[in-house]
Amino acid sequence: MKLSQLFTKTQKQAPADSDSLNAKLLTQAGFIAKQMAGVYNFLPLGLRVLNKIQNIIREEMQAIGGQEILLPVLTQEDSWQKTNRANLDILFHLTGRGEAKIVLNPTHEEVITPLAKQFISSYRDLPFSAFQIQTKFRNEARAKSGLMRGREFLMKDLYSFHTNENDLNGFYEKVKAAYFKIFQRVGLGEQTILTFASGGSFSKFSHEFQALCETGEDTIYFCPKCNIAINEEIIKEQTTCPECGNKNLETRKAAEVGNIFKLRTKFSEPFNLTYKNEKGENNLVEMGCYGIGISRIMGVVAEIFNDQKGIVWPLSIAPFQAHLISIENDKKVIATANKIYDQLTKQGIEVLFDDRTEVSAGEKFAEADLIGIPNRLVISQKTLAKNSAELKPRTSPTTSLVKLTQLAKRFLLPKR
User: 276 and 214 share a domain?
Assistant: First the structure.
């Protein structure tokens, strides 16, 4: 993509109403634009990041057998009344034509369960799991922290269906392992801590995946021996490490990026979701649900990976692999930069090319640091004298020269 043609522009300063570091950086760098409290437009650069996070999650969900579906945003309120959740204060309620009562879904148990009922009749139909990537809506009392707590957000939710609790437990562990792979791949592997949380009415515990973050909204109690934690909400009932019994837990701030629940029969019961076993007897289906906040991951990454100059994207979810800059309005420099851009792009290497001629080198470098693409390539008369480009990783203060003929090899990503 050529920067001169990019729909959006960076800003000298973030808007005064930016309520968090991630909102400030992502807005200033041209990734998002605020629509209203808790609601954001995702601009071309931001959408590229979201799509990369989605693709990583999609691959890992499919690897454990998840089948992708897409459920509706709107649901009849009757379904929420069946589960006694129609009065939740986070629900957006709408009235359609004919006084129809509608809910904007914050989650999809009330949709997937009656849907599954249409296809499950026998133990032979189980187990199976289905996931979606869908927009969710939550009527937060106070939307804050940029993408980390919104009223409209993008989420992956997976639902699994089983004949018995043992089968549910086995799949639950598979999802847990897949989640660690996901967070490793998006760049949050070292920061993400498995955290015991309240199971609510579902089970004794659920599990959250909390990314250590000084500005996170959650407080967790961390066991350095086991690398797990307990959420503050349950610390009164669970005062020691659930794994080793350690009493000396460390208080940390964190941001939740995922959670998993054993729903058991919480939703299959009100919808009468049953299957016939080998003896022809009806049994309730056991269920699990597993969520990841996709837009929240984007916000958390920006919140954690930054410096005084701007964002520092992990390569796996960066909008582009390389930020190509031509400096000096020299015909040879401009022609060579365009040729390099075309060559790299044809080889499948993602390049953001700052081809603007009216902007100074200093301004281009500052914008490159703000946007945070992992590698900066500079073409100038000085570099061309050595038939090279100047390469500077975003995380390094040093530069090196790379021969123009070797550039593609430096950026071709290895296959997974």
Answer: yes
Q: Which domain holds residue 335?
A: 322-411
CA atoms of 253 and 215, how far apart (whole Å): 7
pLDDT of 64-76, one tens digit each? Answer: 999 999 999 999 9
Tracing tokens 């204060």 back to the chain, one arrives at: 89
Count the domains in the chain. 2
pTM: 0.95
What Cα–Cα distance (Å) separates residue 228 from each residue in 221, 236, 274, 315, 365?
9, 17, 36, 27, 41
Mean pLDDT of 82-91: 96
Cα–chain-centroid distance for residue 172? 20
Residue 416 has pLDDT above 60, yes or no: no
- Which CATH number does the domain housing residue 193 bear? 3.30.930.10
The two three-digit tokens of residue 213, written as one number: 């973050």
Residue of 220, 179, 230, 144 lying closest to 63 (CA atoms): 179
Parallel, antiparallel, or unpaired for β 322-326 and 375-379? parallel
Distance CA 111, CA 77 (A): 11
For the record, the structure tokens of 252 come out as 């940390």
Is pLDDT above 60 for 280?
yes
How far is Cα 328 from Cα 343, in angstroms, rounded to an integer?
A: 21
Instruction: Retrieve residue 97's tokens.
Output: 């034509």
* Structure confidence by residue, pLDDT tens digits, 11-20: 988 888 888 9
Last residue of a domain, one of 307, 335, 353: 307
Q: Omega before 127 cis (within 30°)?
A: yes
By CB atoms closer than 10 A (0-12, 13-18, 19+), residue 190 is: exposed
Q: What is the pLDDT of residues 123-145, one digit of tens each?
A: 999 999 999 999 999 999 888 88
In a domain, 216, yes or no: yes
Q: 402 lies in a domain?
A: yes
pLDDT mean over 395-414: 87
Does residue 414 carry a pLDDT above 70?
no
Task: DSSP for 49-71, please give it.
Answer: HHHHHHHHHHHHHHHTTPEE---
Picking from 307, 337, 356, the residue at the C-terminal end of a domain is 307
Query: From the centroid of its chain, how far is CA 75?
Result: 25
